[in-house]
Design brief:
- The protein is about 30% helix and about 20% strand.
- By secondary structure, it is an alpha/beta fold.
- It has two domains: about 5-250, Thiolase/Chalcone synthase (Peroxisomal Thiolase, Chain A, domain 1); about 260-415, Thiolase/Chalcone synthase (Peroxisomal Thiolase, Chain A, domain 1), CATH 3.40.47.
Length: about 425
């Protein structure tokens, strides 16, 4: 089958370390931590009292107040990030076949704040069922793609992927496949999440998944460090405009990179713990490389899932060594979650952007907050500790893994025109 090529022509980011793509990349390049005490609610009674929140955002600068009230924050974040990506792409909607333009978005949870607030209000009431008429539309995860298609008039495939923390990458892979199979020419894709709520922090605390380093939030997300104690919850959105290569070329579009392959697997092991030997993680990277027609030696940078959990970090490194062999020692490996925290369903989207910009700019973002080596990790690996490193990045592979054993890997490379 003659598969079509897929390129990235627009980027948008709303993150804990920057509300635009340039701000996000500046934060990554300079090793900025987005973690701070929670401002969304009084977290003083919670085991974890900090998170990586989006900062200095006035939603009404981007969305009309009346419209914004119909949206949960996860949808608001999607709309804001996509606005930047669409402007960046330079697409002229009047000259675009909107029937061949679609939206595939990702969110692991969807409208958590909406669900929480409506149930709390009902529980605190007199028992009379008074619910906001927008309760259900605000809550359901697919509504983000619905709002986006309505705003831009995109009438092609339209849905949201839900695969926990792999959702954003899952969405990108699905959009990639639709384009290369000739089902569409353009996709808005990426992911958003807004889980910094009482229910979000409390739920992850109950699982013992979050760091409890309340005395020093900025250093709490420390992937691969011996003293890591869990991940830091983040929020935000990442948006990519994916486009068929010839379509992009014909309109003279700016091209950031080519999306060349993706893989998806399941651990089939445990609902929250990774496979101890990284079996699913190794297989998904192998499948992504095969899909891209690349060898391990073609990859220069791996943006890891790297959440800062005791089990997850070790199993992912084992998987990388299994797949890349001796070339693993020539790779740059880093976890940008050390800076952004874990954006759950949006993680894959912002980490895809980090990978694309590493290819474009020849710079690998660091894994910050490294203080003590973990004897379970090979010290000869270049985990890009504490400072960004300059190097040519011909191709970058990005991993995202989710509760339920969902694994996704995606590969971006320099465009060969």
């Amino acid at each position: 089958m003659n598969l079509r090529r897929v390129v990235v022509t627009g980027l948008g980011a709303l993150t804990p370390i920057g509300n635009t793509v340039p701000e996000f990349w500046d934060g990554l390049s300079n090793g900025v931590s987005g973690a701070a005490p929670i401002t969304r609610f009084d977290a003083s009674l919670f085991k974890t009292q900090f998170a990586c929140e989006v900062k200095n955002l006035n939603v009404e600068d981007f969305i009309d107040r009346k419209e914004a009230r119909k949206m949960d924050p996860f949808t608001q974040y999607a709309m804001i990030a996509v606005d930047e990506a669409m402007k960046d792409s330079g697409l002229d909607l009047e000259k675009t076949n909107l029937h061949r333009a679609g939206v595939i978005w990702g969110s692991g949870i969807g409208g958590l704040k909406t669900f929480q607030d409506e149930v709390v209000d009902f529980a605190n009431g007199d028992g009379t069922p008074r619910f906001n008429p927008f309760f259900i539309p605000k809550m359901i995860a697919d509504i983000s793609a619905g709002f986006l298609s309505i705003k831009y008039g995109f009438k092609g495939p339209n849905f949201v992927t839900v695969s926990a923390c792999a959702s954003g990458t899952n969405a990108l892979i699905d959009a990639f496949n639709y384009i290369r199979l000739g089902k569409a020419d353009i996709f808005i894709s990426g992911g958003s999440e807004a889980a910094v709520t009482e229910a979000g922090i409390g739920g992850f605390n109950a699982m013992k998944a979050l760091s409890q380093r309340n005395e020093d939030p900025k250093t709490a997300s420390r992937p691969f460090d011996n003293d890591r104690d869990g991940f830091v919850l983040g929020e935000g959105a990442g948006a990519l405009i994916l486009e068929e290569y010839e379509h992009a070329k014909a309109r003279g579009a700016k091209i950031y990179a080519e999306l060349v392959g993706g893989g998806m697997t399941a651990d089939a092991h445990h609902i929250t713990a990774p496979h101890p030997e990284g079996e699913g993680a190794a297989n998904v990277m192998k499948f992504a490389l095969e899909d891209a027609g690349l060898t391990p030696e073609d990859i220069d940078y791996v943006n890891v899932h790297g959440t800062s959990t005791p089990l997850g970090d070790v199993s992912e490194v084992k998987a990388i060594q299994k797949v890349f062999g001796e070339h693993a020692y020539k790779l740059n490996i880093s976890s940008t979650k050390s800076m952004t925290g874990h954006l759950l369903g949006a993680a894959g989207a912002i980490e895809a952007i980090a990978s694309i910009l590493s290819v474009k700019n020849g710079l690998v973002p660091p894994t910050i907050n490294h203080f003590t080596d973990d004897e379970n990790l090979d010290s000869k690996l270049n985990l890009t500790f504490n400072k960004a490193q300059k190097r040519e990045v011909r191709a970058a592979l990005s991993n995202t893994f989710g509760f339920g054993g969902h694994n996704c890997s995606i590969i971006f490379k320099k465009i060969d025109e």
